[in-house]
Amino acid sequence: MNRTSLPGANPVPGPLRRGLPLLLQTLLVVALALPAGFAVAPAFLGPGSAANPAPAAPAWHQIPGTLAPRDGAPGTTDGLEPLTATAPVPEPGHLAAQLNETLKADGAGSFTGVVQDAITGEVLFDRSGDAARVPASNMKLLTAAAALHALGPERRFSTRAVAGSVPGAVILTGGGDVLLGAGESLPGAVLGRAGLASLAQSTIRALADDGVSVPLTVLLDDSLFTGPALNPAWNPEDVAAGEVAPLFPLALNSARFDPATTTGPRPQDAAMSAAEAFAAALSAAAAPAGLTVTPGVTRVPAGAAPDAAGARVLAEVQSATVGQQVDLLLRTSDNYLTEAIGRMAALAVGKAGSNEGAVAGVLQQLEELNMPAATLRAADVSGLALANQVSARQLVHVVRAITSGTDPRLRAGLAGFPIAGLTGTLGDRYTDAATARGAGLVRAKTGTLNTVIALSGYVVDADGRLLVFSFIGNGLTPGAANRTALDRTASVLAGCGCR
């Protein structure tokens, strides 16, 4: 999660404020449709076909009079046309002149930045792009790409109830899903897709079929993750504030007490909290079957968990897909979910399910994606640690890999980028006159620590050219208006003809 201690945007002028909700709703329809249009092979790029000259006022910068039908009727389309390589590329000198006017620190510190053309990779703007900087939550982009590459977007994690060696023993076994719900499974959801009440009900049915009549006991196996549950690189104050919590391979609501509350302290033993919720659900399901559950949950000692290959699985529930979880972690910037996904990616490539394993696994996947990582230093995979060092060029490389790289699995990360003025951590930004032209068009991952602010993402400019960018500010004055500087800069890209 980003630490949002910086002040909000300036008030919106009256006429703009009255018209902005309708404009943003319209832009949301267009913006949410972009990934579907971009998915037309290959990636963002349509085949190199001849194109008409760009209109003076591009369609995606206009409020449509009507929404196009989606029923395949003659003369209609079922989505956006793919982008084309013939759209004009911004002229670097003209673009730099505009960006240098907006990308200025308010007080202490400085910004670095890189803008590239997504199709050709041409660098259009470069201000100390290779300088290693603290990326804050822009680190999540690296983890998202690594997870999609290592696990694949369709992978799911299973939480299982396994029969113990003693009659009536039920072992709740964590498989990496930290988005469990306490109630019944919600197939259409991401948070709560796998429900412990459903797992309990299926477990009781399996035990009843086996003719079990002894009191049931619940044990917890959370041995999938190893090493310290807390990364020593994290500030204890951030842990106490609920920015993150000790990591376990199962948790309710991404280690939140209430799924509707996404700030404040988190459970310090999320695995045990989940196990206690499962035990309660098991007890409720057992009564109608004439079974009882012994109060309390016992953690399986380290090294004493049953062999996964030989254990009898009584029941299991499966998480949302990795692609859906990546979408959620990018949109909400949840540190806990990101760290869990990083550990699961590490396990998938033979690394340990630990802090160190997650870092090593992410770096390995980035190398496979040909990211220049010689100067990259990673202390965690969520960006909460101040010891992380990443350059704007490295972040742009990852954004470009997601938007138009050679691995189509990474395309699953596109929809997770927050949309300016509309969704996720950009939902309350781009609401004043200085940034409104980026509203609904800029898609970018945010990053905020006390003296750090970053923004990396992609945008289709006014000429129809897909641009990828990263801007990182370090050493900034806490509470200054640097977030506005970033938003104004990204808005320049959205409105740029720049020729």
TrEMBL record:
Pfam families: Peptidase_S13. The keyword Hydrolase applies. Residues 54-91 are annotated as: Disordered. Coiled coil: none annotated. One of its GO terms (molecular function) is serine-type D-Ala-D-Ala carboxypeptidase activity. The keyword Protease applies. InterPro entries: Beta-lactam/transpept-like (IPR012338), Peptidase_S13 (IPR000667). PANTHER family: D-ALANYL-D-ALANINE CARBOXYPEPTIDASE, PENICILLIN-SENSITIVE CARBOXYPEPTIDASE A. This is D-alanyl-D-alanine carboxypeptidase/D-alanyl-D-alanine-endopeptidase (Penicillin-binding protein 4). It comes from Arthrobacter ginsengisoli.
